[in-house]
């Protein structure tokens, strides 16, 4: 393939051609010069700007693909408001909605509210952070579960969402997921790390047999399937057979705590009391350090990396302690050397920031969360010693940052992630915690899988934008057109 007429270096005038052979860039012309098109499929880059392909390093692919077809309740200001939106939708028998945010509601959601408004309906409303799901009595009866309020949180919520997804035919689910992958390519994304709660090795094998996805996929596993993966010698980075190299094995996903918006993110300091009466909560630690070490050790014994969800500062401390224990065994050669990531790292004590660098832990962060959570943080995490969304602090210490969206929690759009990381505001308000804003170069590197530029020999994961990001305003960066996307040497998007 020959990608013609693109801008490769902002410091040089003139357009270049880029030759791709297989999954590698093999030749880049000098600006103003042309490469021969003989024997090549020519793709017109239309004078666009060439970047290493965008990587969304944290998605829940099936959840996002299905969420695109659900009722959006993200703008609801109360539980009653959610119910009104559901009633106005006109759906009456099976109702699926997505996006509620209850952290600051005065009245919590309850199953009886759904039954009163939609009697006998099978209603499931998933929170914006995927840590809660609100079910109607009729749907709970159908699932064979009992709950006092109908609002399931954290591990229970994951189990309920899994039970609901199991009711969707595989062919239908795969069709929606593959369509979703095409949409990601249109947004310039060339690769994703999928954290769906599923046997992802098998699920993506099945999908690739239907047709290759529009993005390359790193497929995580969960503790439920860990022993199976170790026994089958599925190592992190290993290609999944019969997927033409588009799918590979990813890390083990572990949940260390809950989320900010459910007040279950595990913190050193207590959350403020809802009623001012003195009851206090530090959130929930969903797995203790010994169990974390056991899971990470089991994974490492099979050369599987670990990716641990940790939002609150205490959860981050506990995870870093566990990583240190496992790393010590790697240094002695008792365990193979594999990577470790902390997913989210939304609140970190200053003393723990340097430990990310010292231990070589990747900080997998979602800049859009900082913007959507800023008002909640200012209330629930006010006056904390820890730093919230400490991107620049981590960057200064040399920590590797990788950007993701956590879709469907945030839209999977790296352009917005970069803008949020750099400008720390996505509306007309002043920047929030501007001292933690990243330089544009660091933000782009974090959005492009750690790559700064396209060079000969680099992976043929390429994104062509209409303009250089450093010339764009906060608003314009979010909407700069994506002219072309090449993933693993395959053209997956070309703007009309």
Write the layout of secondary structure elements.
Blueprint: E1 2-7, E2 16-21, E3 24-28, E4 42-52, E5 54-59, H1 61-67, E6 71-72, H2 79-89, E7 94-100, H3 111-117, E8 122-127, E9 132-135, H4 137-143, E10 151-153, H5 154-165, H6 170-186, E11 189-194, H7 200-210, E12 216-221, H8 223-231, E13 247-255, H9 289-301, E14 306-310, H10 313-331, E15 340-344, E16 347-348, H11 350-359, E17 362-365, H12 367-380, E18 387-388, H13 391-396, E19 401-403, H14 414-423, H15 440-447, E20 462-465, H16 474-479, E21 482-487, E22 490-494
Parallel strand pairs: 1-4, 5-11, 6-7, 7-8, 11-12, 12-13, 13-14, 14-15, 15-17, 17-19
Antiparallel strand pairs: 1-2, 2-3, 4-20, 8-9, 9-10, 16-18, 20-21, 21-22
CATH topology of the largest domain: TIM Barrel
* Number of E-type strands: 22
Query: How does the major sheet shape up?
Result: 8 strands, parallel
Unreliable segments (pLDDT under 50, ≥5 consecutive)? 275-279
- Label the structural class: alpha/beta
CATH architecture of the largest domain: Alpha-Beta Barrel
- Mean pLDDT across every amino acid position: 95
């Amino acid at each position: 393939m020959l990608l013609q007429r693109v801008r490769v270096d902002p410091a040089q005038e003139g357009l270049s051609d880029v030759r791709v052979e297989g999954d590698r860039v093999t030749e880049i012309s000098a600006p103003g010069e042309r490469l021969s098109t003989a024997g090549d499929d020519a793709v017109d880059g239309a004078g666009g700007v060439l970047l290493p392909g965008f990587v969304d390093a944290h998605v829940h692919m099936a959840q996002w693909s299905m969420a695109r077809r659900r009722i959006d309740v993200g703008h609801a200001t109360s539980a009653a408001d959610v119910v009104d939106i559901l009633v106005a939708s006109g759906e009456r028998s099976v109702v699926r909605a997505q996006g509620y945010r209850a952290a600051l509601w005065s009245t919590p959601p309850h199953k009886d509210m759904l039954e009163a408004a939609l009697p006998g309906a099978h209603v499931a409303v998933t929170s914006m952070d995927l840590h809660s799901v609100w079910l109607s009595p009729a749907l709970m009866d159908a699932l064979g579960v009992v709950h006092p309020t109908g609002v399931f949180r954290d591990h229970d919520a994951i189990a309920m969402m899994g039970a609901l997804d199991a009711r969707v035919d595989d062919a239908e689910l795969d069709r929606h997921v593959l369509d979703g992958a095409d949409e990601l390519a249109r947004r310039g994304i060339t690769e994703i790390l999928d954290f769906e709660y599923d046997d992802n090795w098998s699920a993506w094998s099945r999908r690739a047999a239907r047709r290759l996805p529009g993005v390359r996929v790193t497929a995580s596993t969960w503790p439920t399937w860990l022993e199976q993966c170790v026994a089958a010698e599925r190592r992190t980075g290993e290609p999944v057979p019969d997927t033409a190299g588009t799918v590979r094995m990813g890390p083990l996903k572990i949940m260390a705590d809950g989320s900010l918006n459910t007040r279950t993110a595990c913190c050193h300091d207590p959350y403020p009391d809802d009623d001012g009466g003195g009851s206090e909560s530090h959130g929930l630690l969903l797995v203790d350090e010994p169990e974390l070490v056991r899971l990470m050790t089991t994974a490492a014994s099979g050369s599987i990396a670990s990716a641990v969800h940790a939002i609150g500062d205490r959860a981050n401390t506990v995870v870093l302690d566990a990583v240190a224990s496992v790393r010590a065994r790697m240094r002695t050669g008792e365990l193979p050397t594999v990577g470790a990531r902390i997913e989210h790292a939304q609140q970190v004590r200053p003393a723990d920031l340097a430990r990310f660098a010292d231990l070589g832990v990747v900080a997998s962060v979602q800049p859009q969360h900082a913007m959507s959570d800023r008002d909640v943080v200012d209330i629930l995490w006010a006056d904390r010693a820890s730093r919230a969304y400490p991107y620049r602090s981590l960057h200064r210490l040399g920590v590797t940052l990788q950007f993701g969206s956590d879709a469907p929690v945030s839209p999977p759009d790296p352009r917005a992630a970069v803008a949020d990381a750099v400008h720390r505001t996505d509306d007309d308000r002043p920047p929030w915690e501007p001292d933690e804003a990243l330089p544009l170069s660091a933000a782009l590197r974090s959005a492009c899988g750690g790559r700064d530029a396209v060079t000969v020999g680099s992976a043929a994961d390429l994104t062509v934008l209409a303009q250089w990001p450093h010339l764009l305003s906060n608003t314009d960066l979010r909407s700069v057109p994506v002219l072309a996307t090449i993933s693993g040497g395959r053209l997956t998007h070309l703007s009309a």
